[in-house]
Amino acid sequence: MRHFVILLFVLINISCKKNPESFIEHINGYWEIEKVILASGEERDYTYNEFIDYFQVSDDLKGIRKKLKPTLRGTFETTDDSENFILKIENDSLNIYYKTLFSSWKETILLATNQELKIIDSHKNVFIYKQYKSLNLN
């Protein structure tokens, strides 16, 4: 049954698919993970995140993904975690190709808007991000 749900989810996303080129303009920025839908169908909600992901894409479709730790002052502490990537549109999909000294991998962007980012990895896990909003303690 779980495999049916995953297949249905993927088919719905494919049938409602937007032009992947339109996703590029929405990737830049600060993203907080909201939920992961594992390939098994299990869902994991994230109500609190110590770290957020920062994406920066240049005009040549090269970019960087960095882990940041928000502070109570509204600034960020940077981590050593950083990956360079290249975006490529292939077969009506927007793919992210990462390469580090130790590994290389691909992810596919299923959706990118001002408010939401959905990425699927090679293990068929779907990561759902929301745009990060800093804490307002005033």
Helix content: 10-25%
User: What is the distance, rounded to the nearest whole angstrom, between the alpha carbons of the first and last residues?
Assistant: 47 Å
Q: What value does the Rg take, in angstroms?
A: 15 Å
Biggest sheet descriptor:
8 strands, antiparallel, barrel
Give the neighbour order of strands across the main sheet: 1-3-4-5-6-7-8-9
The figure for the number of domains is 1
Tell me how many strands there are. Answer: 9
What's the tally of helices? 2
Helix and strand composition category: mainly beta
Write the layout of secondary structure elements.
Layout: H1 2-15, H2 24-27, E1 29-37, E2 43-45, E3 52-57, E4 62-70, E5 76-90, E6 93-99, E7 104-112, E8 116-120, E9 126-131
Antiparallel strand pairs: 1-2, 1-3, 1-9, 3-4, 4-5, 5-6, 6-7, 7-8, 8-9
Walkthrough of the structure:
By secondary structure, this protein is mostly beta strands. It has one domain: Lipocalin (Beta Barrel), CATH 2.40.128.280. Helices cover 13% and strands 50% of the residues. It has 2 helices and 9 strands, in the order ααβββββββββ. The longest helix has 14 residues, at 2-15.
Can I get a quick summary?
The protein has helices at 2-15, 24-27; strands spanning 29-37, 43-45, 52-57, 62-70, 76-90, 93-99, 104-112, 116-120, 126-131. With 138 residues, it is mainly β. The chain is globular.
What are the main properties of this structure?
single chain; 138 residues; Lipocalin; 2 helices; 9 strands
